[in-house]
Design brief:
Length: 457
């Protein structure tokens, strides 16, 4: 099994990888399908189902779908151009994607939130349709946004399409047990095996440059979040807090006002900065999702800024190790909140961050696996219940606590020998089963939990 670090970590836009980036990716794929078709098209339509319907407005799924059908892509997203395009589409009721001419599209009539009919493959389902001059549908494709910006067509999902379609890699571990066996047999670290896998599909220079860029985008997101103030969009009136907390922490440095546990505030602030940016629709990196995008950057920033002896040269090992763990979770369970609750998002992110931190602090492969297990274990059962469908409450603070758990998990693992009672594989399987048993109202629908027990306005 091979899932590239550049698939696990993707540069995109907020507020959601599954509800914003995924629909945009699906729309781009549908445009390509239309371009390859012999038909003459006059219009397009879309219907959103399941979680994409219930929390679609709060997650900007409608905007993302429209922009995707207009030809916008997450990796090259231009916010100013997007706003101008949305205004133009609302005024003219037409889309003009490259190579397809002018297409009828009325945002109020041709984008439907279907709350009553879920699609069978996944909670995040959407149908895209192209019509002829009479308005009859002549091309239709169902897509599923399966978490972290990954999208599968109805046919791909039914066929059990693997994430890996390339040639064999040197270390094709599908489980944590296989990963540890290969590490012992080769004498290599998890990061070294993951690097060899990546290089076998590309080159060492591209891996180094690519991971450096990922960290640059992550860190830039932290900096923007720390510099920003104001109220987040969406109507809840949630104020940005990361900047004010950061300024207070800087002012307390070197004074007797700073308590030993203040390091937790630093970690939380880094994470909150990212997720406030995400909530505002800014550029983030899926890690493994947008809703959990703050955990890993906060943990890595903590390592670089607060751990004696930390070296920027270790960033690549951190990200490669984290990606290896994230791949195991995605392959054997889920990273989708709509499929398994927030345990699959923040829980997975915390496990990935704990593994990365443990690795760069000298942990053995066994200790790294232990760190990931500790972090994931203590997120089991966590629901996804965003208030008003916005990725703000409880999501922003939850990332801060996920990062703190990651640091604690790595520290506990480093204090041990790597021997522990619950294997990571068992924890991942437990998370899968728990997500399967979890009621749908606790899986990113905003129909249960905090979403219905606190005021929405």
């Amino acid at each position: 099994m091979f899932l590239s670090v550049f698939d696990m970590f993707k540069v995109g836009i907020g507020p959601s990888s599954s509800h914003t980036m995924g629909p945009m990716v699906a729309a781009a794929r549908f445009l390509d399908l239309m371009r390859a078709s012999p038909f003459d098209f006059a219009g397009v339509r879309a219907s959103l189902h399941g979680s994409l319907a219930f929390t679609g407005v709060g997650h900007a799924t409608d905007r993302a779908t429209i922009l995707g059908l207009a030809g916008f892509r997450a990796e090259t997203y231009d916010a100013e151009a997007a706003e101008a395009a949305l205004a133009r589409i609302a005024r003219t009721r037409t889309l003009s994607p490259d190579g397809l001419g002018s297409l009828r599209f009325d945002p109020g009539a041709d984008l439907v939130f279907d709350y009553d009919r879920a699609l069978p493959g996944h909670a995040n389902g959407m149908a895209l349709m192209a019509t002829d001059a009479q308005g009859d549908v002549i091309l239709r494709q169902v897509y599923y946004s399966v978490g972290g910006g990954f999208v599968l067509s109805e046919e791909e999902l039914a066929a059990g399409k693997a994430t890996d379609e390339g040639p064999p890699v040197p270390y094709p571990f599908k489980t944590a047990a296989e990963m540890l066996d290969m590490a012992r047999a080769s004498g290599k670290s998890i990061a070294a095996m993951k690097r060899d896998n990546e290089v076998s599909r590309g080159c060492a220079v591209s891996v180094a440059r690519g991971t450096a860029r990922l960290w640059q985008v992550m860190n830039d997101c932290i900096e923007r979040g720390l510099a920003a103030d104001g109220v987040l969009p969406g109507g809840l009136g949630v104020k940005r807090r990361a900047g004010a907390i950061h300024r207070a922490l800087l002012a307390e440095r070197g004074t007797n006002l700073s308590a030993p546990h203040t390091i937790n505030d630093w970690i939380s602030t880094y994470a909150m900065a990212v997720n406030e940016e995400n909530a505002a629709g800014g550029q983030v990196v899926t890690a493994p999702t947008n809703g959990a995008a703050g955990v890993l950057p906060a943990t890595l920033r903590y390592y670089l800024d607060h751990v004696p002896g930390a070296a920027p040269g270790h960033v690549e090992d951190f990200l490669l190790t984290a990606a290896a763990i994230g791949g195991l979770v995605k392959f054997n369970a889920s990273i989708s909140g709509a499929e398994a609750g927030c345990q699959a998002e923040v829980g997975s992110a915390s496990a990935m961050a704990a593994a990365g931190l443990c690795a760069v602090m000298g942990g053995t492969p066994e200790q790294v696996e232990n760190a990931a297990e500790i972090a994931l274990e203590h997120h089991l059962g966590m629901t996804c219940d965003p208030v008003r469908g916005l990725v703000q409450v409880p999501c922003i603070e939850r990332n801060g606590l996920g990062a703190i758990k990651a640091v604690s998990a790595a520290s506990l693992a480093l204090r041990g020998t790597g021997d522990h009672f619950v294997p990571l594989d068992a924890c991942i399987e437990t998370m899968r089963q728990t997500g399967q048993d979890m009621h749908d109202k606790y899986k990113e629908t905003s129909l249960g939990g905090l979403a219905v027990n606190v005021p929405n306005c």
